[in-house]
Structures are given as C-alpha cells and as structure tokens.
Amino acid sequence: MSGILVMFASNFKKMKHISFLTFTLLVGFALVLSSCKKQKSATTGWEYNNPKNGGFSVADFGGQITGPGLVLIQGGSFTMGSNYDDPMYEWDNMPRKVTIKTFYLDETEVSNLDYIEYLYWVNRVFGTDYPEVYRRALPDTLVWRDQLAYNEPMTELYLRHPAYHYYPVVGVSWLQASDYCAWRTDRVNEMLLVDRGILDLDPDQLNENNFNTEAYLAGQYEGLVNKNLQDLSPNGTGERGVRMEDGLLLPRYRLPTEAEWEFAAIGQIGNTVYERILDRRIYPWDSHVLRTDDKIYYGSFMGNFRRGKGDYAGVAGDLNDGAIGPAMVGSFWPNDYGLFNMSGNVAEWVADVYRPLSYEDVADLNPYRGNVFKRKVRDSEGLIAEKDEFGKLQYEQIPVEDIADRRNYRKSNNINYLDGDFQSTVNSEDWVKQGEDSNSSTMYDFSTTTMLNDHARVYKGGSWKDNSFWMMPATRRYLDENVATDYIGFRCAMDRVGSDDGL
C-alpha cells in the first residue's frame, strides 16, 4: 500500500498538469485496491487485524496530519551560529555544521487571543477549587511600565482589548509558555477524538476530570464516550480507547529548540540549487539590507524593529514599519518556509538552557541543551501511578542506580553536561564534595561570579524594541525562565513522525 502511494506521489511531482481532484481519485482507487486484500505479516504470514487468529492490530497510516497553526519545516544540514562580527565580544556562538530533523513550527507567534482562550479554559476547569493554577498562567501585564514613560494604557488594554487580539502575547515567562504548549496538545488531541466520533464534547470537565493525552492513553481518563474503536483481541471487551499505535493522536506541542528555531528562521530551503546554498543568509531573506525590493512596497522594512534611539517607526505620514510597538502576528513578509516575523516584532523563547557555545559543545544532530530524563511514577505493583489533582500523570527523574549500566547517558539531569558538572569541575575538592548528582553551583555561582545557572533560558530573534543586530537569527540572548518582558513572546513546535521529506 505504501509503495502505491509513494509511486503516485512521485509521479504527481513530475506530472504538473494533473489536477488535484485527479490525484485524489487515484489515491482513493489505490486505497480501495489495497483494502481488498488482507494485510499479512511479511515474517510470519499471519493476517493482521483478524480476531480469529489473535487479533493483532496494525493501523493504516496515511501520514501525520498538520496540527492547527503549524507549518512543515523540512529538515537538513546548515551552519548554525555566528556569521558576523561579534561587537559584544561574547564569543558564545561559534559556527558549527549541524543537521535538524523535519519538524513543525507555528506560522506566527502565539497571539493574545490564543492565550486568552487558554486562560478562559484554565479558569473554567480549575478556577473554583484551584485558583492558583489560573493565577500562575496570567501574563505579567505590568511589563509595559517604565519609570520615565507613559505606557499605563497598555497594562490595561494590550492583553484583552479586541483591538489587540491578533497581536503577539507578551509578559509570558518561559515556564508559562511551556505550560501553554502542554495545554494546547491536549485540546488539539481531544478535538481529534471528537471529530472522529470517539468522544463527545464535554464542557463540564472539572479539576482532575479533564482530557489529558497521557492520562487518556494510560486509561485514567475516559470522557464522554460516543463510540470506541473495535477491540479485536479475544481477551478484550469488544471495544477499546485509542492507543498511540493507532496513529490518530498528534505528538505534543512544545517550544522549539534553539537549533530548530534558527534553522527555520534562516529558511535556506528557498536559497539552494541541487544541495548548493547560493548565499549564506544573514537574515530570513536574501541580501544584507533590511528593506524590500517589492515593486509595490519598494523600500519598506522587512520587519518590525527600532531603527535608532527614539525612532521606533519613522515619521508621521510615512511610518517605515507601520508599528510603534508590536505589530499583528501575520504582518510583513513570510520567509521561504511561510513563517511570519522570525526577525522583529517580538523575540521568542526557545527550549534550551543557555551556555556559551563552542563547536564541541553540542551534538551535530538535533543539538539541544536542557535534557532532564524522566519516567512515569509507578506504584508498588509496577502500574502507572494515579494522575494528580490536575489530571496529569506524575513523573520523576530516573535514579542514578537505574541507569548506571547505560552507555548513552549516566545521569538523568544533563543540563550541565560537560559544562559545570562534576566531570569538569576545576577544584578537585569540590569535585568530591559535589558528587555525581551535582548541579552547576561550582562553576556557576549565580549572582556572584555569573548571571548563568540552570534556569537561564535562550530567547531568539529581534523585537520591536531592538536594533537590527538582534534580527539576525544567529544572535542569542538569555533570561531566567521565570522572567517576563514586553518584547518576548513565543511560538510552538511539534515533532514530525515518519518521513523527513514531507510526503
């Protein structure tokens, strides 16, 4: 079956005159043909999906659907890091060749309206019994205040007034952005099950009785069942809930890694010919200038930034970027992946913990610093422990003794791996004292010798408040994961399962 679809897809690329309707009919015909013959195991000869021989189920999978708001970012190799002089003399971003797997990224930054929807849901589900959950999710609207400026209207209006619905949400910390991603995962997967007729809508979800993807897969949330899937196992009840093996649920929404964000922002997919990069970009567009050569908008700025001290948008009657503060999330020109505002408007949180980077500091495939390997908490009988009062499964860091024999990692918290952990501590006495479960306190004495610790998170891209230097996707800055500002927002990413070429 997969061979038939690949053949049609390959021919479809070559036959540009074929209509989409014709292609759809051909694929449908292939599906009908393939369904006429039962699938069998290539290694045992036993039929799949046959309750008479044990009921081993194998789902037909037509490829990952694109989640709401996402754009497919086809992966590949690129030179990550600095490609310019370093006027700050930080030397924290040495160029290095890395490869990024194909993934998905939001077309735009998360907007105020998107975040208000999240706040409404949190308040409806947890507001009565757990009001602290709602308070924890609220953006800090006071980030707009300045001791010597009049910005008070923004503290009251920017988040909730309909005039700003489609402007990027700000005042959100890294932790709040991560919580939003988790919430979005569950809402999207719940709606997928509703659309398939498996669940009915349940507006009365409350406290721990709310749809959580992991709790549902673990059998700890049932919801309003409309029609479950057929259970082919002779030992089953005749019906069952959805499993991950069915391919109906999407992977989780999350913050992109720094490498993913930078790769997507540069958008080299539109700047290559037969695997040859024509020109290494400084910005998400060709050329080193900041203005468009579009005949209609000739000379207009490609992004929203501060041109100079006291100049946020130019003069009245001819605002050079049309936005004195943040602009709407779909403003300006998209890059070659179709992503808006990867340079300018608001800077964006990414997943990584900040460290100065040299060539050797990262893996060359999907580089990322911030891994803390965890596992689901289990009870005395080895079963997954009951979900908590918020409807989520409980996790714990993997103990050292359970990974002592592993070859690929030796401890669960790898944030400071080879950079402040006990293996690289200069003082041998501290090495002994810190032990194997040490954190970064020896080399990173926060607020005394450095502003770095394991809670410093990277944010990327320039903003409406920055000069053009920070609009280069390779630039990087950091803030504590609990801090929020009036110029940092975020967008969500998602893993791509299966083929990397996007077919």
Characterise this structure:
The protein is α+β, with helices and mostly antiparallel strands. The chain has helices at residues 2-14, 20-35, 112-126, 131-137, 152-157, 174-195, 213-217, 258-266, 428-434; strands at 70-73, 76-80, 96-100, 103-106, 229-230, 239-240, 253-254, 272-273, 276-277, 314-315, 318-319, 347-353, 374-376, 395-397, 456-460, 476-480, 488-489, 493-495. The protein is globular and about 75 Å long. The model is unreliable at 1-27, 31-35 and 426-437 (pLDDT under 50).
Task: Give the tags.
single chain; alpha+beta; four-stranded antiparallel sheet; 9 helices; disordered N terminus
Calculate the terminal CA-CA distance, rounded to whole Å. Answer: 14 Å
Query: Strand-residue fraction?
Result: 5-15%
User: Roughly how many Å is the radius of gyration?
Assistant: 25 Å
- Could you tell me the mean pLDDT? 86
Q: What helical percentage do the residues reach?
A: 10-25%
What is the oligomeric state here?
single chain
Instruction: Give the ordered list of helices and strands.
Output: HHEEEEHHHHHEEEHEEEEEEEHEEEE
Give the beta-strand count: 18
Biggest sheet strand line-up? 1-4-18-7
Query: Treating each run of at least 4 consecutive H or I residues as one helix, how many helices?
Result: 9
Which residues form runs of ≥5 with pLDDT under 50? 1-27, 31-35, 426-437
Structural class: alpha+beta
Taking the sheet with the most strands, its summary is:
4 strands, antiparallel
What's the shape?
A: globular
